[in-house]
Design brief:
This protein is an alpha/beta fold. The chain has 2 domains: 139 residues, Rossmann fold (3-Layer(aba) Sandwich); 172 residues, Dihydrodipicolinate Reductase, domain 2 (2-Layer Sandwich). The chain is built from 9 helices and 14 strands. The strands form 2 sheets. A 9-stranded mixed beta sheet has the order 7-8-9-6-10-11-12-14-13. A 5-stranded parallel beta sheet has the order 2-1-3-4-5, with helices on both faces. Strand 7 and strand 8 form a beta hairpin. The longest helix has 25 residues. The protein is globular. It starts with 5 loop residues before the first strand and ends in an 8-residue tail after the last helix.
């Protein structure tokens, strides 16, 4: 095991950036050099905690090997381009950019510069998803539901870019197929952007995905259902639970499940429900360690900017369909509350 530490800084230390900083200070692969933020309150807070606060983002970038960008979305492009031009490895929160043109340019420049890049789709490191992925083979139908109570965070973009891109990323990671049809509906509830969206995706390999997302719900819910030939996989990303319901006995799961039930589904048929063991590691910490170890070991991060661009392409296809629906319904994209 290498003792090398990566000199890293954080740009944008709000709620999410603060969580990144918290974990970086406790990760053996990280040497935290300092932070940059435009808020005077944030600066004073971290100065009191003994964290070096840089007056300019450029000064921070001149002193680090890698940077975590968790500032508001509209600032991502400028900070990312500055980091890439200085050959600083880049971890950037989602959505990676405001526009597809920005995202395309960022990905191309990063590849040309040879820097490591990673987009913060943290659900890829959710222990429930990483556990389920071991038994996912060839999804035929995927159904996702992502609900959240309203907060002011993330409302500078639509719910598609704020929340649904997590599920787009997970779906794209599970299939080699290409999307051939997108249909979506949605509406604004409290912001000028779509706050509730349902989307239907068809892939050229036969996979169908149906996604539902809302940022004006009573309670949080993050569920992912995968139907494949040998059964149904239910993933509760929020509660970190995975169940496999299959008509076949899964003897190879004997050491991997914590509970097993036998269901009578009629006509003399049985189904077996397996509740899988979950390793409850922190997803953000796992994601940061993955990024830093890719730098140390010269490996490709799991979610580079090139993949983040593909996720944004799908997100914008969904948004285009939503706006067509809004115009057709005469809703004029005005909030109903």
């Amino acid at each position: 095991m290498s003792d090398r530490k990566v000199k890293v800084g954080v740009i944008g230390v709000g709620k999410l950036g603060g969580r990144h900083l918290y974990h970086l200070l406790r990760i053996p692969e990280a040497e935290v050099i300092g932070i940059f933020d435009t808020s005077e309150n944030v600066k004073e807070k971290y100065k009191r905690e003994g964290i070096r606060v840089f007056d300019k983002a450029e000064e921070l970038l001149d002193n680090v090997e890698a940077v975590i960008i968790s500032s508001p979305t509209h600032t991502h492009y400028d900070y990312a381009i500055k980091a890439i031009k200085k050959h600083v490895h880049l971890f950037i929160e989602k959505p990676m950019a405001e526009t597809l043109d920005q995202a395309r340019e960022m990905a191309a420049l990063a590849e040309e510069a040879g820097v490591k890049t990673h987009v913060g789709y943290v659900e890829r490191f959710n222990p429930a998803f990483t556990t389920a992925k071991r038994i996912i083979e060839m999804p035929l139908y995927i159904q996702t539901q992502r609900l959240a109570p309203f907060t002011s965070r993330g409302t500078d973009v639509s719910v598609v870019l704020d929340l649904m891109t997590h599920d787009i990323d997970l779906i794209l990671s599970l299939t080699p197929g290409s999307i051939m049809n997108v249909h979506a509906t949605g509406m604004s509830v409290v912001t000028s952007q779509p706050d509730i969206v349902s989307a239907y995706l068809e892939f050229d390999n036969g996979l169908v995905a149906y996604m539902s997302v809302s940022r004006f719900a009573i309670r949080k819910k993050r569920r992912f259902h995968i139907y494949q030939r040998d059964g149904l996989i239910n993933i509760d990303l929020g509660r970190r639970r995975v169940k496999l319901i299959s008509p076949l006995k899964q003897d190879d799961l004997a050491t991997s499940f914590v509970d097993k039930e036998v269901l009578d589904i009629g006509e003399g048929k049985l189904a077996y429900t397996y509740t899988l063991k979950i390793n409850n590691q922190d997803a953000i910490r796992s994601e940061l360690r993955h990024f830093l170890n890719c730098i140390i070991n010269n490996e490709e991060p799991l979610i580079p900017l090139s993949h983040g661009y593909k996720v944004l392409q799908v997100a914008h296809q969904i948004l285009d369909s939503v706006y067509r629906y809004i115009r057709r319904m005469g809703m004029q994209n005005k909030p109903i509350i």
